[in-house]
Amino acid sequence: MEGLKTVAKNLKGLIRLHQWIVDEKRRKLGELLKMVGELEERVRRLEREVVEEQAAAIRAPETVGFFYGNYARQVVERRERLAQSIASMEQEIIAAHEDLNGAYRELKKFQVAQEVRDRRAALEAARRDQNILNEVGLNIHRHRRA
After folding, report:
1. What is d(CA 113, CA 95) in angstroms, rounded to the nearest whole number?
2. Could you tell me which residues come within 8 angstroms of residue 28 by beta carbon, excluding any fewer than 6 positions away?
3. Averaged pLDDT of the chain
């Protein structure tokens, strides 16, 4: 019986460990999603900036218009770099999501095993209690007959 308690304690420790692993992987995924959101916000800011620069170039073509060509080339490069960063991050997100799913499945294995053990222990305890009650009942019955 002592061996079963040790195994149950070890299983609970494994469950805590795997829960911690799942939580860490969930945090990592959240950080990656946040980073993609920040990159996407940078893209939106860049688009707003382009609109503002185009309006300024239209208002003052003789001064700002001269520099707009260089600016437009830089914007294209920035867009490409941001798009590459976002694509790279999305690949990392996919990998992190798969990693999280694997860790969660591993956690569930231990949780299900613990539930099975708990049910078995409860059934065994109920069986022992019933045997004790049966013995008490038999003793009372024998005592009344005697």
Report:
1. 27
2. 96, 100
3. 90
